[in-house]
Amino acid sequence: MPEKHRPTRKISIGSLQIGGDSPLAVQSMAATQTQNLEATARQIEVLEQAGADVIRIAVDSDADVAALQTLREKFPNAVLSVDLQENYKLAPKVAPLVNKVRYNPGHLFHLEKDKSIREKVEFIIDAARAHGCAIRIGVNCGSIDPDYKEKYKDDLVEGMVRCAVDHCQILDELKFENYCVSLKDSDSTKVIDANRRFAKERPDVPLHLGVTEAGLPPEGIIKTRIAFEQLISAGIGDTIRVSLTLPNEEKGQEIDVGREIIKDIEEGRFRSVPENFLDGLNIIACPSCSRVENDKFVELAQEVRKITAYAEKHRLTIAIMGCRVNGPGETDDADLGLWCGPSRVNLKKGTETLGSYSYDDILTQLKKELDLIIASGAG
Ligand code: SF4
After folding, report:
1. Please, are residues 326 and 143 in contact by the beta-carbon 8 Å criterion?
2. Phi, psi at 186, each rounded to 5°
3. Do residues 100 and 82 make contact, with C-beta atoms less than 8 angstroms apart?
């Protein structure tokens, strides 16, 4: 089945073009500490060898910028993207070193409250324009701008879409065209819904698709496939990222899986998803990145799946996040949430924090809480 024509405009990310009739680009993100130059260089090599079109790196400090400079010198031809979460002020320092800058509208809200969102966006856009960078407006359901969260509390998907559309308008007014948008959630159905609604309203804007915190393979792959099959076959999506919780040396799997899904869709091979898939225990986990606070994170996610296997028939969600940047917010909707600190893991039940535990004790605590929820008849 040929892919449907994509009506988006083309944008340039360094030597790469996405949008319009360009091939779908496949990207990934380094999961190592950016300042650990050896590990991050190795991560870039792993992703390049797997054929990543774009490699994203997180930058949170001047020391990360210095590391990025060294990495750029070592990989002069790599198409690099930077993720600015809570540090938009670093934009002028990173823009000369990369090809794309991603900002999160939800995080802009919390910074420098005396400035308007538009002023902060303009600051980033000025830096991107001066250095020929592309921009991604990256909206995540778990870190949605509180103004939109409040206004659209009964339909958060609409809140994401409105936020993205409003930011597009700011960029349009600033006469900056080299941008794309992403609307991510850990729930495939919300990803499908958000991207469909956005594409209807802004068919010209290229879309970066992803199911965030999809988790461990194989479930993480299935969740991603569910979303991508629906969207790409309808001509929605210009670049993709498959977010999987994997050891660093296996990160290339994100690229392999992404290419396999695209090929299957192009050739009309759709995997039917059993009706009751995700009816039972749903484990979501972030793919980890340089912000991960303890290397034990991936192993922890694997252990959580193992020790909760007995609860597979219960309709409950357990979320496992690697750091404090997205951990506290992205676990709010889960029945039980874990987010990692350097030496302790925070355990939550919905939005309530139950306590923080050592990496040795967390699994026992988690199981206790899970047993209590099951005994209460929930799920
Ligand atoms: S939760 Fe933290 S460690 Fe995990 S991917 Fe997001 S920013 Fe990175």
Report:
1. yes
2. -85, -5
3. yes
Beta strands in 141-281 (DSSP E): 179-184, 207-209, 239-241
pLDDT at 247 exceeding the cut of 60: yes
pLDDT for 272 equals: 65
Residue-wise pLDDT for 115-142, tens only, equals: 999 999 999 999 999 999 999 999 998 8
For ligand 1, atom 2, name the residue with the nearest CA.
323
The matching CATH number, chosen from 3.30.70.1170, 3.30.413.10, 3.90.1200.10, 3.40.630.10, for 282-375 is: 3.30.413.10
Rounded CA separation 135/137 (Å): 6
Query: CB neighbours of 270 closer than 8 A, spacing ≥ 6?
Result: 229, 233, 264
Against a cut of 0.70, is the pTM above it?
yes
Domains 11-266 and 282-375 share a fold: no
Tell whether ligand 1 has an atom less than 6 A from the beta carbon of residue 286. Answer: yes
What's the pLDDT tens digit per position in 165-185? 999 999 999 999 999 999 999
Task: State in Å: Cα 175 to ligand 1 middle.
Answer: 32
What are the domain boundaries of the chain? 11-266, 282-375
CA of 17 to the centre of ligand 1 (A): 27
Dihedral angle of Cα 171, 175, 179, 185, to the nearest 10 degrees: 20
Q: Which fold has domain 11-266?
A: TIM Barrel (3.20.20)
Render pLDDT for 287-346 as a digit per residue (tens, 0 to 9): 888 889 899 999 999 999 999 999 999 999 999 999 998 899 889 989 999 999 999 999
Tell the residue nearest (CA) to atom 6 of ligand 1: 326
Six token digits for residue 174: 């600033």
327 lines ligand 1 (CB under 6 A): yes
Residue of 288, 331, 345, 346 with the most ligand 1 atoms within 8 Å of its CB, for mutation: 288
